[in-house]
Amino acid sequence: MNNKAPCHGCEIRFVGCHAVCMRYEAWRLTKNAERAKVRQDKNVDEVLITGCMREKERKRKKLGR
């Protein structure tokens, strides 16, 4: 996905056009979906890492270190 909004270089741009521009709205929905996917992936990674750290700590305590 292009990181630049479709507003860049738009000839019919005006103050407040984001409220009515269909191209911007479509771009924004796609961008929001991409960001939600990245956040979800980070949350999954965080859960996995936290679980591994807890398991390592349990093993360390069990061995008395």
Overview of the molecule:
By secondary structure, the protein is an all-alpha fold. 63% of the residues lie in helices and 0% in strands. It has a domain at 21-62. It has 1 helix and no strands.
Topology, please?
Layout: H1 22-62
Oligomer: single chain
Chain-averaged pLDDT: 88
Strand-residue proportion: under 5%
Total of DSSP H or I helical runs spanning 4+ residues: 1
SS class: mainly alpha
The biggest beta sheet reads:
none
Overall geometric form: rod-shaped
Unreliable stretches covering 5 or more consecutive residues = none
How many β strands by DSSP?
0
What is the rounded Rg?
A: 22 Å
Note the gap between the termini. Answer: 50 Å
Order of secondary-structure elements: H
Features of the shown structure:
65 residues, mainly alpha, 1 helix, 63% helix
Task: Describe the structure concisely.
By secondary structure, the chain is mainly alpha-helical.
